[in-house]
Structure prediction request, 241 residues.
Amino acid sequence: MRRLASYVIFIVCCGLALSQQPERKCLREKVIVFPELSTNTWVKLHPNESMTQTEFTVCLRFYPDPESSNPCLFSIATPSNPRDISLLWFVDTKQYQLVIHNSLVQFNGLPLNLNQWNTICVTWDVKNALAQMFVNEVASIKRVVGPKQAFKGEPVISLGQCQTKVHSAFHLSKTFTGFISDVHMHNQVLTINQIKTYMEAKSKYKLGDYINWHNLMYTIFGSAEINEKHQVTFKVKEEQP
Prediction:
């Protein structure tokens, strides 16, 4: 009951701007700009179905500016847990953090380029609770994180913010500033070759079946906005299919 109450509060706190209707667009060659350190600025993603997943892969590209100490890139809250999935990085320690079912694991030694594009994919499987992270074509070891249980229910999926505590919404220290692009979520653990294809972006990579950047329904809050990729960066390494 307490978890359900926290999720309801999260919906109320983060969904006050319900007058903003969701849009569905192809965002190929576009980025979402997060221009200021504000808990009111974020993007909600709307999947086509409720969450019933036992494994997943999340991939995205981000262009960071270290305004906050541990910015959150991607987050999913469900009725059973406000921190079902969260992906963050820590400026001071140069670590990436993955939260699964409110349990966390940190990955050390992976690259992070400020004011440049970074490409990240993370995988997790309920059978063994093993997670692995790939950043700029560098693979981490596999780490155990979270209980062996599936993700179920109606999710709240956010870019640029994380819900971090029971009965609270967003925290300023976890606010992301910069650009995010090419967000895809799959209902499976992608193969190494599929992840490599996404990382290189030189040929047609596998589009997400749960979240698809080329057919994305989303709602923007605060000062976040959609821009053409060439308008915000001079050099773009990714070549989209």
About this structure: Residues 4-19 have pLDDT under 50 and may be disordered. The first strand starts at residue 23 and ends at 25.
